[in-house]
Design a protein that fits this description.
The structure holds 2 protein chains of 2 kinds. Chain A has 2 domains: 3-92, PH-domain like (Roll); 124-355, no CATH class. Chain A is 53% helix and 15% strand. Chain A contains 12 helices and 11 strands. In chain A, helix 7 crosses helix 9, helix 8 (239-261) runs antiparallel to helix 9 and helix 9 packs parallel to helix 12. By secondary structure, chain B is an alpha+beta fold. Chain B has a domain at 237-314. Chain B is globular and about 75 Å long. The two termini of chain B are 22 Å apart. The chains are: A alpha+beta, B alpha+beta. Chains A and B meet through helix 2, helix 3, helix 4, helix 8 and helix 9 of A and helix 2, helix 3, strand 3, helix 4 and helix 12 of B.
Chain lengths: 374, 408
């Protein structure tokens, strides 16, 4: 093997004292030459050569704990050529080859996102037992009850009537079959939600909560039925669980990969993924609307309930006072059109939207357009 | 403010050796770092994030390696395996928290209490790991603070400030609002309202005004317990400069709130005069423009205090009772770099990250000096054992600001 002579400086063990010297490697033996003194320091294989990085001095730890430092990086590489870290260091070097790498990176990141997120979601969903969903329902409801929800003020009769509607929908679902093979525990609960207003929400295990405001504002059963069917759709399509695992997966990927790419980039991506999850939420809303339509049809119930629901909502809440309707729900017009299209496709007659029962506080305007100027 | 030459003249004379001011030389370039960064990102993606632990090491090693004082550079010695194990432990703990939250609220509470209790230990371990993994001129840094000391400064004192602040807010809300009307009880008498209001505002101010003392307590703990080799760092500073920085920050916050508040107020007022009805799209757009301005103002205010503290730390620290430091950060320049860095990253879709990091590190180096009395050599490491797992990962992921190395 060739003779290598590398000049540099050597630090005493754990010390900042150093002296100039030469590291000489003859075959597989290594020597330190300082001045006239030549010292055999052992086998080449015993040297701990630090991975090359950038263009600053590279360090070699000798078997006795002293550290040899040299700026002759190429000579060090010849001592022990090849290996993973030498390849990494070569790739890192400035050069034209970095341009294709830089171009490839965003595509690979996007590919990873497209590939990994669905994998992480389905992995998470498959390891989540039904018991976990019930536990999630219980803890979510407990939290909500503590923070915003109060006991319902609806009469027992009204609750019973709506529960009957709910059970009718569930019976129809038994007939048509479920999308999921999970054993959901469907349960309809009524709560006074105060400032949240007319709303209904579903939890992943099958608990569905309807607010008093919703029941009071929409006293037509076919509208409530459509909303309930929509929420059953969320449960049966496992939308909430998907969202939970999407958020966890995104957080995991962003903190693991972008965390080292840069703090600013990481923050930007985390914000971006929150916005992105809104678009998935829109997709889910549309899916639940279609589910609602199918379920109402299977139950032989009126299928235009959601049209009435959105019309009234737009009329009474012209500007999204309720933030979540604007953010996470597709523009109501699209969703109305969607239901009307489905009714027409099934050969039905779309509802007469102008004769919708006016709600209390209506000033008598017959137009269903949101009131802009008075 | 004293100039640098005045500062040097004010240093104690005598002892061994002559006094020499060393600039911190930063030899990193965007050109060179870009390759390291892009390979880091690419390999992290390809390995589904596993490589990111090694990527962190290469990053830190690069920035340490290109930072020189008196012809010698720094080095970072942690291995990718240590970082990876540290991260796995943190993720494992998060999963345990998640499951406990689902299945057993009692267990969740127990885990949170345990975390709260051991947080001081974690922070101490993180400071120690970072110090021991860093070397200058073949000699390791070290950290010898106690876990209890870390808990007191990093956990308890800030917590007391928060509790005090929110207590004050609560009391003044009780005084200013008719809670009685909301809850259906009798309204509070005006005199009691006044007393509550004054009490609340006093508590808010008191808890805000102790923040500089908390900052100084944290700085004293973290600097005085750092070692270079077996030699101690020493730090103490009068409270005055802390208050100057703090009041500048508060002043800027108030300025931002009032300035933008007046803009919003006047625009909303004119809109209401010209048209009745619900706020239109124009107002919404206005808010989306003003929101970043608010954010920008607050970020800038935060930077004012950070810069002040950075200068205080370096200008009042001593190593081995003889070497001193100078920091000449200026808020406008520093804030300009931080804010244009953010813009550059956003508009380059991340590609400018290497440039922004080099630019910031260069500013830090250019504005830091070491005033050495005698040689910077002659030190010996006290730490030989460098095994262990990176406790710094928890602090990293949770965003604790414990980094007081040569940068921020």
């Amino acid at each position: 093997m060739a003779l290598h002579r590398i000049s540099g400086r050597i630090f005493e063990q754990q010390s900042s004292d150093y002296s100039d010297c030469e590291l000489v490697v003859d075959g597989d033996r290594a020597f330190v030459h300082s001045g006239a003194i030549k010292q055999d320091i052992g086998n080449l294989a015993q040297l701990k050569i630090q991975a090359r990085l950038g263009s600053f001095a590279q360090k070699i730890t000798l078997p006795d704990g002293r550290v040899f430092e040299t700026e002759d990086l190429d000579a060090v590489e010849q001592l022990r050529p090849g290996g993973f870290w030498n390849t990494v260091a070569k790739t890192e070097k400035t050069g034209w080859h970095l341009i294709p790498l830089a171009i490839a990176t965003p595509f690979m990141a996007f590919g990873l996102y497209k590939l990994m997120i669905p994998v992480l979601i389905s992995m998470g969903m498959s390891i989540t037992p039904d018991q976990g969903l019930y536990a999630l329902d219980k803890s979510t409801l407990r939290t909500l009850d503590r923070i915003v929800l109060d006991e319902t003020e609806l009469t027992a009769e009204r609750q019973d009537e709506l529960t009957t509607v709910f059970n009718k929908l569930l019976a129809a679902k038994e007939k048509t079959g479920s999308k999921s093979d999970r054993n959901f525990k469907y349960k309809l609960l009524f709560r006074d939600a105060g400032p949240i207003g007319p709303n209904a929400f579903a939890m992943p295990g099958g608990t569905i909560v309807v607010t008093d405001d919703l029941v009071q504002e929409f006293d037509e059963d076919h509208i409530i039925a459509a909303v309930l069917a929509h929420e059953i759709g969320h449960v049966d399509s496992e939308h909430q669980l998907r969202q939970v695992y999407r958020a966890l997966g995104m957080w995991f990927m962003i903190t693991m990969i972008a965390g080292d790419a840069g703090e600013i980039l990481e923050d930007a991506l985390l914000e971006g993924s929150a916005v992105l999850s809104l678009s998935y939420s829109r997709e889910h809303e549309m899916g639940a609307d279609n589910y609602s339509y199918d379920l109402l049809k299977a139950a032989d119930m009126r299928t235009d309930g959601l049209v009435g629901f959105f019309d009234r909502l737009q009329k009474n809440y012209p500007l999204p006072k309720k933030g979540e309707w604007a953010m996470s729900h597709p523009v109501a017009d699209n969703r109305i059109e969607n239901i009307i299209e489905r009714i027409i496709a099934d050969g039905g007659t779309p509802p007469d939207r102008n004769s919708d029962t006016p709600s209390d506080g209506d000033d008598g305007t017959k137009s269903d357009e949101p009131v802009k100027e008075e | 403010m004293a100039t640098i030459s005045e500062h040097i003249e004010s240093l104690p004379t005598g002892g061994n050796g002559i006094t020499k001011t060393h600039d911190i030389e930063f030899k990193g370039t965007t050109e060179e770092y870009f390759g390291i960064w892009i390979v880091n990102v690419l390999l992290s993606i390809v390995t589904l994030g596993v490589y990111s632990a090694w990527a962190k090491v290469r990053n830190k090693k690069y920035f340490s390696g290109v930072t020189f004082i008196d012809g010698h550079n720094f080095d970072y010695h942690a291995t990718g395996v240590q970082i990876l194990i540290g991260r796995l432990i943190v993720f494992g703990f998060y999963i345990a928290l998640l499951l406990a939250n689902l299945y057993s609220p009692e267990l969740y509470l127990v885990l949170i209490l345990i975390l709260f209790a051991v947080l001081g230990w974690i922070i101490r371990q993180a400071l120690r790991f970072n110090a021991r993994m860093t070397s200058y001129r073949n000699v390791r840094f070290n950290f010898e603070g106690s876990a209890g000391g870390a808990w007191l400064r990093y956990v308890l004192l800030p917590l007391l400030v928060y509790v005090g602040f929110f207590l004050g807010v609560l009391v003044s809300v009780l005084g200013s609002n008719d809670l009685g009307a909301l809850t259906g009880q009798k309204p509070i008498a005006p005199s009691i309202k006044l007393v509550l209001g004054i009490m609340g505002i006093t508590i808010i101010f008191a808890s805000l005004l102790v923040i500089p003392y908390v900052s100084r307590a944290i700085n004293r703990y973290s600097i005085n317990n750092h070692r270079y080799g077996d030699r101690q760092f020493g730090f103490d500073a009068p409270i005055g400069p802390y208050y100057v920085g703090f009041l500048k920050m508060i002043g800027l916050v108030i300025l931002v709130l009032f300035g933008l508040g007046m803009v919003v107020g006047s625009i909303v007022a004119t809109t209401q005069m010209t048209s009745t009805g619900t706020p239109g799209a124009g107002t919404i757009t206005l808010f989306t423009i003003l929101y970043p301005l608010f954010l920008f103002g607050f970020v800038a205010a935060g930077l004012v205090y950070r810069v002040a503290i950075r200068n205080i730390i370096f200008n009042n620290s001593v190593l081995d009772e003889r070497h001193q430091f100078i920091s000449t950060f200026e808020t406008p320049k520093y804030a300009f770099i931080i804010i244009t860095n953010v813009l550059a990253v956003v508009f380059s879709l991340g590609l400018a990250v290497p440039w922004t990091r080099i630019r910031l590190a260069r500013y830090v180096a250019e504005n830091t000096k070491v005033v050495a009395k005698g040689s910077l050599g002659g030190y010996t490491s006290s730490v030989i054992e460098t095994s262990g797992v990176s406790a710094a990962e928890y602090a990293d992921i949770e965003g604790f600001d414990i980094d007081i190395g040569i940068g921020f």
